[in-house]
Amino acid sequence: MNARTAVIVGGGPVGLTLALGLSRAGIRTVVLERGDRAVEVSWKGSTIHPPTLELLDQLGLAATIVSAGVVVDRLQYRDSELGDYAELHYSVLGEHTPYPFRIQFEQYKLLDLLRDKCQADQDIDVRYGNEAVQLDLTDPGAPAAVVVDRDSGEQSVERADVVVAADGAHSAVRKILGVGFDGMTYSERNMVLATDHDLSRVADELGPVSYWTSPYGKISMIRTPDHWRVAMTLPSSAHSNDLAGVGRSRLHNVFGLPVDMSLNQAAAYRIHQRVATTLHMGQVCFVGDAAHINSPTGGLGLNSGIQDAFDLVARLRTEARVQDAVSAYSRLRALVAKYVVQEISGQNTAMSATRQADGRRQAIERLRGVASDRRQLADHMLRVSMISAARAYPPGSSNVPAAGLIRGAR
Ligand SMILES: Cc1cc2nc3c(=O)[nH]c(=O)nc-3n(C[C@H](O)[C@H](O)[C@H](O)COP(=O)(O)OP(=O)(O)OC[C@H]3O[C@@H](n4cnc5c(N)ncnc54)[C@H](O)[C@@H]3O)c2cc1C
């Protein structure tokens, strides 16, 4: 029997994108979200790549995001000590996508748009303050989530044709099912800051997105609609209780920025590259960060989660049996997460982490070479903007290759 109902655990951006897609496919959805309706302003994602905009356009959201976001027409790769920099332009993608640019639009604003849209959809019932605490798999054809209402403490059971875990990197559903989260964690800690200080003057012709190498590790500067965001390697000696002080001092030493510059946010984080050992167990499956997490350098995580959601919708809509839909979804999206997303994010992270002057110079020179050769530039931009993989494996693609043959990462 094909799917008519779904329970989604997690009303984050991926879970809600999935709910909207399922509604368009005629599948009624209950979304369980343990938090409140109000969206917290946080320091998470902001990059939206062209294929994700194409998908969000199907939900009627792309025009709003493009008009409210920062349009990034070029990426810059710079070094804090070497004069030359590489600039890679998105215009080379003009014949490949209606969106030949990347957009910076804060994840919390996207989440707010998605929550409004779900609220207006009569086939979607988002239950805030509802936490999934257990699964009931006694009927394999109708899995259920056991839910606790955080206000009243009352417990209930939500059953459907498919249960989808969109409950983030620490997924309770993944842990309840005992599904592994294989991969690695980088040893270095990182921090992200948001500031109202105008960073456009730290260098001549500074673009809206620049990735810097330096003797101290990587620094990235991203213009979002509300702030400049800076991410950097945290010195191993830094104490987490003075992140703002550490950040200001690094930016002062490297760029001469004021030691008392305003900061709106400062948070430390670790970088992981992990994929769940399977993206489904019976008729329960995983999407977004519950399924895979990767280095944020290059802004791929949320984008790949949204692409998961569209793939799952396409399969649940067309496959006659839910089991076939979720197992084909699991096979393809696990491969894309491991061999495309992690490959690209790993390369981005390695390149920007180089500290020796020779290695830094070579990295910039290599990218200047890419920028000066149209074919290489197109290949590079198609890859880092996720277009190569999106074209090779569109939602519901029947093309599920062997691991070594997956395309889109090089
Ligand atoms: C510093 C940083 C920068 C990033 N930048 C980018 C970027 O530029 N571009 C990009 O594509 N990605 C980026 N990412 C990654 C991106 O933020 C994540 O991939 C994204 O949040 C994943 O969305 P999600 O919906 O899968 O999970 P989440 O956003 O974690 O949402 C999970 C939801 O599930 C709810 N939940 C959890 N457990 C339960 C439960 N048991 N019951 C009910 N509800 C539950 C939570 O309250 C939450 O609302 C970045 C990440 C970091 C750390």
What binds here, in terms of ligands, is: flavin-adenine dinucleotide
Number of strands: 20
The coarse silhouette is globular
**Poorly predicted parts:** none
Our count of helices gives: 11
SS strand fraction: 25-35%
Topology (elements, then pairings):
Elements: E1 5-9, H1 13-24, E2 28-33, E3 47-48, H2 50-58, H3 62-68, E4 70-72, E5 74-79, E6 86-89, E7 102-104, H4 107-119, E8 124-128, E9 130-136, E10 144-149, E11 155-159, E12 162-165, H5 172-176, E13 181-195, E14 209-213, E15 219-223, E16 228-233, H6 243-255, E17 265-276, E18 280-281, E19 284-286, E20 292-293, H7 301-318, H8 322-353, H9 357-371, H10 374-384, H11 387-392
Parallel strand pairs: 1-2, 1-12, 2-8, 5-14, 12-19
Antiparallel strand pairs: 3-7, 4-7, 5-6, 9-10, 10-11, 13-16, 13-17, 14-15, 15-16, 17-20, 18-19
The structure holds flavin-adenine dinucleotide.
Short description, anyone?
The protein is 34% helix and 26% strand. It has helices at residues 13-24, 50-58, 62-68, 107-119, 172-176, 243-255, 301-318, 322-353, 357-371, 374-384, 387-392; strands at residues 5-9, 28-33, 47-48, 70-72, 74-79, 86-89, 102-104, 124-128, 130-136, 144-149, 155-159, 162-165, 181-195, 209-213, 219-223, 228-233, 265-276, 280-281, 284-286, 292-293. Helix 1 (13-24) links the parallel strand 1 (5-9) and strand 2.
Give a description of the structure.
By secondary structure, the protein is of the alpha+beta class. Helices cover 34% and strands 26% of the residues. The protein contains eleven helices and 20 strands. It has helices spanning 13-24, 50-58, 62-68, 107-119, 172-176, 243-255, 301-318, 322-353, 357-371, 374-384, 387-392; strands at residues 5-9, 28-33, 47-48, 70-72, 74-79, 86-89, 102-104, 124-128, 130-136, 144-149, 155-159, 162-165, 181-195, 209-213, 219-223, 228-233, 265-276, 280-281, 284-286, 292-293. The strands form four sheets. It has an eight-stranded mixed β-sheet with strand order 6-5-14-15-16-13-17-20. It has a six-stranded mixed β-sheet with strand order 8-2-1-12-19-18. A three-stranded antiparallel β-sheet has the order 3-7-4. Strand 10 (144-149) and strand 11 (155-159) form a beta hairpin. Helix 1 runs parallel beside helix 4 (107-119) and helix 7 (301-318) packs antiparallel against helix 8 (322-353). The longest helix has 32 residues, at 322-353. The radius of gyration is 21 Å and the shape is globular. The two termini are 39 Å apart. The relative contact order is 0.17. The model has no long low-confidence stretch (mean pLDDT 95). The protein binds flavin-adenine dinucleotide (FAD). Flavin-adenine dinucleotide binds at residues 9-15, 32-35, 43-47, 107, 131-132, 166-168, 172, 192, 269, 288-289, 296, 299-303, 305.
